[in-house]
Structures are given as C-alpha cells and as structure tokens.
Amino acid sequence: MDETSAAPLSGHAPLAFAPTPLHEATRLSEAIGVRVLLKRDDQTGLALGGNKARKLAYLVEDALRAGCDTLVTAGGAQSNFARMTAAAAAVAGLGCDLVLGGREPARWSGNLVLDRLLGARVHFVGSANWLDLLQKMNDVAAALGPRAYAMPIGGATPVGALAYVHAADELLAQMSGPPDWIVLADGTGGTHAGLLAGLPAGVHVLGVDVSRPPIALADAIPPLAAETAQLAGRPAPPGELHLADHCGPHYACTTDEARDAVRLAARTEGLILDPVYTGKALAGLIAAARSGRVRGTVVFWHTGGAPALFAEEYAGF
C-alpha cells in the first residue's frame, strides 16, 4: 500500500482500549534501584492485549480505505502481532492469513491456539529466516490478489508506527512532567520509531533488541521515525538512538536473565511478562539501571505477550 496516501488516519478503529494505565512499580523500583513507572499496553484489550492493538487500529483503517478484504502478515510461531492481526481481522470482518516460522508442531500451544481460535489461515514456512517469511508472505498476498493487505513483521511501517506518536502524547498527558527514560522491547522497531517521532527532546528511549532483524535496528529505526514524524505532521525527531542487545543466541529463545526478570516482575508487582519480549526488555532495564546507564524516572512500556508463557517451548517457569 502507498502509505503516504493514507494520511490523515484517525486510528479510531475499535481495537485498543486507551488510555492504558500508568502506575508506580514501587517494589520493582526498590529491587533495581531506579524509579519505575509501568505503562500497561498489555491491557489494550484486543485478544489478551499488547502494543500491536494500537498499530492495528491504524493499519486496519488503512486496509479498509484501500478496499482490502484480507490481512496478511508473518512472524515467529508464537508471534504476538500474528495473534492480534487475526483478532483485528475478526473485529473488522476481514480474512486473515498468517505466515509463521518453523514447522507445524504436533501440538499447538500459546499464541498458536489463539490464531486458530480467531479463524486465521496459518501457513508454516519450515524456515525461521525472516527473509524466507517475508517472501512467503508476499507470495501468499499475491495469490490472494489485489485486495490482500500485506503487513511486514510487527507492523513496522509508518502507518503502524503512527499509533505510537499518539501513544507518546497519551503518556505525557498522564504525567506531571516528562520521564527521563522509556524502556521497551524492540522487535522490529516500529514502537520505538513512533515514540521517537512523538516525544519531546530530552526524553530518551532505550530499545532492548530481542530479535536482531535482518536490517539492524540502528539502521531501521531512524528512517522509520523520520517517515512517521512526517506522516504525523511532527518535527523530525532528534538523531540520538539508544539500544541494548538482550536477544540471546537467537530470536524467540529465552535467556537466564529474561527468566530472572520475569520472576522478579511477578514476585514484586504481580506483573506478568513473557520470556521473549518483555522479559528481555526488563532484563535490559535491570542491566542499564545497575550500570548507571539509565537514571531518574523510567517508564517501562509493557508491550504484552503473555500468551507465549503457555507455549510448550517456554515451559519451566
């Protein structure tokens, strides 16, 4: 789709409950040594919540404007964006095709159960290579015809990232003054780019790389943030970019640090994180706080993902 022709978009598709809560994490703050506020985009409502509901409100609106009848996207087997795309398609009365990495498991669990429940057609690629996933996604969309709306992994386009320009406005309206830092999981960089396009100078965003995509986040985020700002009619964001790598050996694996972070969040705040995205993001925040890299008031942006805790491959907590 030609994203520049989609502006202005309202994002008013009934997909995300907003504003999402912002609250103090007192015991977690004590444990890691900085003041932490939790921005609860795990509570956006759609299909058990997550940050993708905000993006999909804009992407679905764009698809409907273009006369499309099917949403197509790709991701890992436990992709949160895939699960929420299936839910968004159901709400909008659209078809949904999901291209997922790896081979079909003998027993479906976690997000896969929800993909099927929500009525998506699932295509397993066999490969976990992102380029193979994107190629298959484009092949599926081409086979469906011109009314298929193909979205890259994570919805990381200017249209999708536009949601987080307005989410930045929402956050600032909830606070008496801007935070010093925002920390979040970076899968494909769309949420990070949208926040950079919407936040004022002086608010630093630390993206914790949990995926190592084919185009490095350091290369992908700045142009996406600039395009998103242009789409939103905002000034070009400043050039600073803060990243930390807590991916582990490969995407979709978990790490000892992530497991520890998931347990810490649960046992200090009753907060449920997942082992692939938000658990690694909190591990990144803990390391950055203890090294002195982040100081002051920190917003931990909880992007959701809890269904992955119920996937067989992540058993053991």
Total E-strand runs: 10
Computed over alpha carbons, the radius of gyration is 18 Å
Helix content: 25-40%
CATH topology of the largest domain: the name is Rossmann fold
Number of helices: 10
Main β-sheet description: 6 strands, mixed
| Average pLDDT rating | 95
N-to-C span? 42 Å
Brief summary:
The chain has 317 residues and is an alpha/beta fold. It has two domains: 195 residues, Rossmann fold (3-Layer(aba) Sandwich), CATH 3.40.50.1100; 103 residues, Rossmann fold, CATH 3.40.50.
Structure in words:
The protein contains 10 helices and 10 strands. It is globular, with a radius of gyration of 18 Å. The protein folds into 2 domains: 16-51 and 156-314, Rossmann fold (3-Layer(aba) Sandwich), CATH 3.40.50; 52-154, Rossmann fold (3-Layer(aba) Sandwich), CATH 3.40.50.1100. Helices cover 40% and strands 16% of the residues. Helix 6 crosses helix 7 (190-198). The longest helix is centred in the middle third of the chain and has 17 residues, at 158-174. A 6-stranded mixed sheet has the order 1-2-10-7-8-9, sandwiched between helices. The protein has a 4-stranded parallel sheet with strand order 5-4-3-6, with helices on both faces. The model is unreliable at 1-7 (pLDDT under 50). By secondary structure, the chain is an alpha/beta fold.
